Structures are given as C-alpha cells and as structure tokens.
Amino acid sequence: MVAPQLDTTYDPKQFEQQIYCSTQSLFYPDDTKGPAYTILMPPPNVTGRLHVGHALTYTIQDILIRYYRQSGCNTLWQPGVDHAGIATQLVVTKELEAEGIDIKSLTRDELIDKIWEWKEKSGSTIVEQQKTLGCSVPWSLSRFTMDDRFSSAVTKVFVTLYKEGLIFRDKRLVNWDTKLKTAISDLEIQNREEVGTLWHIRYKIANSDEYVAVATTRPETMFGDVAVAVHPDDSRHQHLIGLHVAIPYTDRTIPIIADNYVDIEKGTGCLKVTPAHDYNDFAIGRRHGLDAISVIDKDGHMACKNVPDFLKGVYLKKARKILIEKLTGDGLLAGDEKITHTIPYGDRSGTVIEPLLTDQWFIDAKTLAQEAIEVVERGDIKFYPEKWVNTYLEWMRNIEPWCVSRQIVWGHQIPAWYSPDGKIFVEEDEETAAVRAEEYGISRTHLIRETDVLDTWFSSALWPFVTLGWPEETPALRMYYSTSVLVTGFDIIFFWVARMVMMSLHFMKEIPFRDVYVHALIRDSEGQKMSKSKGNVINPQDLMEEYGADALRFTLAFMSVPGRDIKLGKDNVKISRNFITKIWNAARFLQFKGVQFCADERVEVSGKINNWLVAKLQKFRETVSRDVRDYRFDYATRNIQSFLRDTFCDFYVETMKLHEDEDTKAIAGKVFAEFLRIAHPFIPFVTDYLAQALGIGDSLILRGPESDILRTTSSSDDEAEVDQFVELLHNARSAKQSGEGDGDEYRTLREKLHNWPGELGRVATGIV
RNA sequence: GGUCGCAUAGCUCAGUUGGUAGAGCACCGCGUUCACAUCGCGGUUGUCACAGGUUCGAGUCCUGUUGCGACCACCA
User: Fold this and answer.
1) Distance B75 C1' – A234 CA (angstroms)
2) Where are the alpha helices (DSSP H) in A593-680?
3) Domains of chain A: which residue ranges?
4) pTM of the predicted structure, to 2 decimals
5) A79, A244, A255, A261: which sits with the fewest CB atoms below 10 Å from its CB?
6) From the Cβ of A10, is strand B under 7 Å away?
C-alpha cells in the first residue's frame, strides 16, 4: 500500500467523521476474547443535547473502553436513552402548545402518542453528538427505558417489590409541585435561601379578652391549624396550656398544647401547628392525635370548607397578601420581622414546592439500603476518589421512603387496579388483576387502573441488569454482569448510583459494578457554574468544530484531576490542538525521511540512543497503562505529552537529523507507531488516521501497543548515561545563552560533550 | 447545625512512599539552510494561606486558625 502524503496542516475536519464511520463495526463486543469489560453508559435524556459535562463523562468512558478493547478484553459499552419522564413531558407539551395545540383537550393516550412521535423525530440528537466525539459505542445494542422489554421488566420489579411488602401505598405528606401537578421526590428539590417575612398573628383566647401571638411565614395555612404549641418549660406561656384559641375569620377553636419541639427563642415561642402543610407539624400532630386539615388544593389554590369565603379559590400567594392586609386592618397583626430562610423549589418547574397530603406509592428504601450499605462498607464497590464513599453512606444511612409515583403521563404506568370499594390489585397485567379481583367477587368491569406513572429513576435503577436481558437469564447477563465501572458525576450518586446498587442487589444478588469513578464538575474559566441564565455555557460542539474532537477529548482528560472541578476555557482546548499538531508534524517529518512503519518483525535494538528511546518507550507504555487502570487520565495525558515532545521530538528526532542511518529510522518508525497505539484511546481520530496514512496497518482500535516488538540490548546504565548527556546538553545551552558564551563554563561543557565517547560525542558536535 | 473538599509562580493547575519546589499559559531574549511560528532554544517568576507539632528532614503527616467552595439537614 502506498502511503499518501500527509497534508502540511493538521485539519481534523478532513478525517474525523470519515474515520468514525469506517471503524464503527469494530466497536462491538467479541466473546471470543476475554475477560469481559463492561461500562454502562449513563443513558442521556431523550431530550438531551450534548453539554460539556456529557463530553467529559463520555470521553472518560471511551478512553477506558478503547484501552481495554486494545488490551484484548471483550468490551461492552452498553448504550441507551432515558425517557426522562417529567423533563420530556415538559419539553413536548411546551412545543405542542407553541404549535397551538391545547394540551388539556388531549386524552392521556393522545398525549402519550404525541410524545412518542416527538421521540421518534427528535430523540436521537445526542447520539449524533456522541458520534462526533468519537464514542466507540455498539449502537445497535442501544436500549430505551420505555421499550417493550424494559417496560415489562419494570412492571415485574414493581409487582415483586409490592408482594414483598417493599412497595406500599400511603397517604402522606409529599413534595407537591403545583405547576406540574405531581409529587416529586426529596432529591428533585432545590433549596434556595431567601429573605422572607415572619408575621406575628394574634389568636384570641377563648372565653377571654387576651390574645396569643403565633409566628409564621405561612399565614394562609392558618385555616389548617389544629393547635398552637408552646414549649412545656416556657414560663411565659405555661398558663396557656390546655386553653383554646380561635382562628380568625372562622368559628373554629384549637387547643394550646405543649411540645418539646417548640424553640423558646424563636418567633414568639408560640407555634401554629398545621399538619397538612408542614413536615414537622405533621409529626407534632401525630404525637398529639390531631387531625390534618388540608387547605391548599393540588393547583395551589385555597380550597377547604374551613377557608373563609373571601379566600376560597384564591392562589396561595395572592391569598397570603389579601390575608395580611385584612389581619393588619383588623388589628390582628402583632408585628413582623425579616428573616432569611430556605424555600424549596422544584428543580424542573422552578415553582415553590408545597408539602401536601396525598395518596402516593412509596418504596421502603430503608430495607433495601441495608445491603447496599454493607457492600460499600466492605469495599466490594469502590469509589474513585474515595471520599465519595462518605457521601454515599451518609445518605444511605438516613434514607427515607422513596415516593415513586408521579401524576404525569409519560412513564411506566403503575400496574395497580382499584376496585370500587378501594381494594388494590397489583399484578403484571390486567388479566391477572381481573382474575384476582373475581376471586374476591369483584367484577372485572369495575376495576380501574392506577393512572400514576413511576419516577424515571425507578427504571434507571434497573439499568445494569435489564439492559442485559433480565428477567431472562441471557448469555449477555452472565457474561457482562457485574459491570466493571460506572462513570458519573457526584450529583448523580443519590439519584442513580445508590438506587442501582439497591435494586441490583435485590434482584441480582450481586453488585452492579465494582468501581464507581466520580468525575469532576466543569465550570467556566472563571470558576463559575455554567448556566443558561449566566450565558457562560461552553458548547462542546463549537469546540470540536474549531479544534477537533481529539483536542477536546485530550483537554478534558488532561484536566480530570480527581476531586477537583474543571475550569474550562477555549485556550485549554487550543493548547491541546497545538500538541496534536505537533504529533502530526512529527509524522510528516518521519514520512519525509522515508521511515518505514509497517514492518512487523521483531527488531534487535542497537546503539545507546536507540536503546535509550526504546527503554523510555517501555516505561511510557507501562506508566500510561497504570494511569488508565488507576483512572488517572491527567497523569496519562501528561505522560503522552512529555514522551512525544521531550523524549521523542526534542531529543531523538533532533539527533536523528545528525545521525541518520537505517537502524535509527527503523526504530523511529516503530516507536512512533507504538506511541500512536498508546495515545489512541485519548485521541482516536488522529492516531487512527496517521496509522492508516503511514501504513502502520489496520485500525488501532483492536490492537494495542506490543511490548515484545522492540528488544533492548543495553543496560540501565546506558540509559542513565544518555539521561546525563541530555542534562549536560541543556546546561551547555543554558551557559551559552546566558551571555557568557565565551565563558569558561560553556567551553568546558562543550568540550566535555564533544569528547563524550561513542555516538553521543558525534551527536554533540552537531548540537553545541 | 452536620459532613467533605480546596488554599503552591501574575493566571490555570501538577507535585504518585516525607528527601534540592514543577508544567502549561503569560512575559523577556534568541532563532525560520532539510517536520512543526499551532514551533524550537534559553530565561524571569514562589514566606507552598497562617500558627504550632511529629521528624535528621514537611508543600506532603498530625492539631488548631483563617478564607473559599460543595453537599446534607433544619428553619416559626
């Protein structure tokens, strides 16, 4: 094969996509090889667009997969896409509304159909972007969390957990999003600190002319009050315990109770107890056997028979304002103070989250967490960096029941059927539920299916085993489970990692992955978190367009120092591009010198400099290998840089110009070819392109560096001698530059170098 | 309030078992006869946040302080 002349300039656009297409078929697992090495790709949202955080996580995973694939492993990088319940439904309904479609006029099934249509049309954008980045993914194995097989596995898991008593339905306080009109889990809340007002409201004591003042930031919930609580040791209020107060604008009176929860220092020392709208009040109410009265409906409007007419149906924020005005006018406001407090917001909707008393489905996470804690404590699952173990364990040990039902349409519909008298049948399909109902004498025609769907993370939690075929015992499941490593960001540890561990242990009786590599968060060059509102978002697509995918990958790997956020600017990528240009030019030079790259036979290395280079190469290969296995991509890329620049170009190639012979050229070609193999996982496009252009052979994807092709014939003393020579060379140059070129120091050093025995001395005469 | 992390050159950061403080960028000087100016050669730049301690020896280990950050919890 005649190698084409390389272009004078490195232009990644000329070949990156072409290389990707021509090598795609090599990305598949190969079970004639072994051992298995598996990475679960965290499935991006179907609505996702590649952001720079994605670029980082996929780059790291691709480096690992390419490295282990080169090393002869049977690699599976399991791809897929997540249906992303709330996020997707939001995106699609917004688009439909923009098209003038009235969402409310659609039936549930019609809306679901619309979302599927949207998914088919726009759901693969991110896959194209992953290809641009060079992800070596076996695409045809991709799974979707709502494909038929996945859905039936989800149903099976739900039914199993229900029958084991680990899923239950209950009326509890949950985080309610009044905009999306669904419950959300604790994790889907963002607490924001805000300055608010603490109002002191006067409640009249029954059969007395006296008042007590309660302090609250939520006056509108007063119609749901069931008591006023004071601390039992509070001398100011002790005489009030057992008396009753009247709630303004109603004819209800409520008792004054004593409870240790009350903080004497805070507010007025009198706490209004509203069990239906506050988690702590709910607990107090339960301790004292008090009812919970809901006064806010699911849309966030005041709605209850206890709410006075002037507020009925009013949105709660407006109701608060009206009420405060009225209380002020009526002299019932004893004062107010500004306080800073944290307010919960829904991270999807951005609205204030209300604790609301509703019927929901819960998972008994506490029980599932037991084993999930043990496997991490025991070290069966390791975290990199290790500090994340604490985060994981801390959360797991304090885990609360997980509310998994969502009042939206896009997701896995909960397989529960209700009879008119409130019996619940949880079965894998309607027919089984109907048969069970009939055993109780309930006609199947009276059964109504639960309309709630499951939290997206419920299905994501099953990703490690359902993608491989569970509940069937497929060969893939046997071969690739447990997986090797999970690569993810720390923000996903609770959402996903913890839940995968719980579900996998429960259903597979085996850990889902051995390692968890927690990568950094990417910030802008000023260290600010990237966000659309700040306008500081760096689009990886733009970076790849300007500098090439290889440059972006190399940059991200280079900056992946464990435990440290990445401050990314365009300049970093530019520097990487410059380095890749250096590789390109080195290749051009070797090509120009007529260096041969393709010879496969083993070579005996002769000469000190050649042996030195080969020894450096061996060390380099071993170091990078260790770096990748230790997840130290920062070390690996630094080593790649310094080997190519300092060792290969600045010394070896420079001496080659003075000392050109067939041996040297042969070694240069082999070493450069080996360098390309070692660097390939990090910068796959340029290395594969050069390998082809220089006639090194087939793609580097399946063949890693080979240790035994070059055999050194000299001792480590020889290596040390050349190291010393290099250092002296530097000293001599330095002495010359420092303006004392005629000085003794430079002359002495030069003489020493020129008189160096053997080839080194000859080389020296050409350099200094 | 609890937990964790960070602090090293003007900037961004390395510093792998405790052993003479490093790289890139920026800056300065020199250099385009046979890869590369997207480059090469050379140079300047430090109270390693502060205070103690352990040690023959501390950027590194221990204790405390300050500053910054993240996460969790709570908030009338």
Assistant:
1) 20
2) 608-629, 633-642, 654-658, 662-679
3) 183-354, 568-767
4) 0.93
5) A261
6) yes
